[in-house]
Amino acid sequence: MNQQIEKKKLPNIKNIIIVASGKGGVGKSTVAAGVAMSLAGEGYKTGLLDADIFGPSVPLLFDLQDAKPEVEVRDGKQCLMPFEKYGIKLMSIGFFIDTKQAVVWRGPRVSSGISQLLSDTYWGELDYLVIDTPPGTGDVHITLLQNFETSGAVVVTTPQQMALADVKKAVDMFNDPQIGTPIFGIVENMAWFSPTAHPEEKYFLFGKGGGQSLANEFNLPLVAQIPFNEKMGESCDAGKMAELLTDKSIKAAFNQLFNGIISK
After folding, report:
1. I want to staple 224 with a disulfide (CB 3.0 to 4.6 A). Which of 20, 195, 257, 260 is the partner?
2. Pick from 178, 159, 181: which is nearest to 27 by CA?
3. 126 near 47, Cβ under 8 Å?
4. Complete domains list, the chain, with CATH
5. Hey, is 209 helix, strand or coil?
6. How many angstroms separate the CA atoms of 128 and 109, rounded?
7. Which positions does UniProt annotate for ATP binding (predicted)?
8. Average pLDDT, consecutive stretches of 10 residues, N- to C-terminus, the chain (264 residues)
9. Alpha-carbon gap, residue 131 to 92, rounded angstroms
10. Annotated binding site for ATP
11. Could you tell me which residues come within 8 angstroms of residue 5 by beta carbon, excluding any fewer than 6 positions away?
C-alpha cells in the first residue's frame, strides 16, 4: 500500500505556480519572470522564487547580481527578506552563491537548500508565488512537488523536435500519480522571430508546430506562443525586464499565458 504523502501548505500564499521544462535553453526563466510581471501588472500580490540551483537567472534578469538579502526577525523567527522590483517579491539561490563558480551539491543538500529558501523567506501575503525550476526532473522538482502544495505547472518548450523529446519527460513527471500536480498548459517559447522594424513578419527559425503537437499528444492546451526579436536578449542581459513587455506581440503572448493560468 502506498503511503499518503502529506504536503506542506505555506501560510499566506494562495497559489504556487511551477514553471518547468525537461530541456535547458528554452527560455524558461524568462517565461517565469514574464508570468510574474504579468500577474503583478494586473494587481496580484506576486513573488518569484528562482530555484535553479545550478543556473540561477533572477539576479541577472532583474539587475540584482551583487545583491545580498537581509535577515530580519519576523513572527519570532529569522527570515530572509526578498527584494522587490516591478511589484514582485524576488528570491534566488543566486543571491547566496558565487555565480562564477560551479555549484557542486549532492541531492540532499539541494533539497534542503530549496526547502529552506522557500520556507524561510518572508513572502508576506501573496496571491501567486511563481517558482522557476531547473531543467530536468531531479531533486528540486521532487522536493517541491512532494513536500509542498502547488496549484499547478506551466511547461515550457521550443518548437524543435530535440526540445520536445526532453519536455515530454517533464510532462510525464507532473502526470505521475505520486506527484499529482495539474498542468495548466504548454508554452511554446521562441515560437518565431519577428524583427522589431517589421513585426508583421514571422520567421520560424526553430521549426513550426512543435508546441501544438506536444499539447495534442498529452491533451493539454497550448496556452501561449511567445515570439522573440533582436532586442529580447539585450533587455534580459541588462536586467530590464520591463522593456520585454513593451513589445506588443510579446505582451499579447504573456497576456494569453496569464489568462490561461487565471482561468484554471
Report:
1. 257
2. 159
3. yes
4. 15-262 (3.40.50.300)
5. coil
6. 26
7. 22-29
8. 61 93 87 94 96 86 91 88 96 81 67 84 96 84 85 93 87 84 94 90 92 95 93 81 85 91 84
9. 10
10. 22-29
11. 146, 178
Q: What share of the chain is helix, strand, coil (3-state, %, to 5)?
A: 35, 25, 40
Size (the chain), residues? 264
- The grid coordinates of residue 147 equal 513536500
Supply 47's cell numbers. 513573488
Cell of 88: 514582485
C-alpha–C-alpha distance, residues 195 and 199, integer Å: 6
| 52 half-sphere exposure, CB direction, 13 A CA radius | 27
> If we measure between CA atoms, which residue out of 246, 248, 222 comes closest to residue 235?
246
Write down the pLDDT at residue 99. Answer: 66
**192: helix, coil or strand?**
strand
Binding-site members are 22-29
Q: What is the pLDDT of residue 3?
A: 47
Residue type present at position 162? M
Upper half-sphere CA count for residue 83 (Cβ side, 13 Å): 20
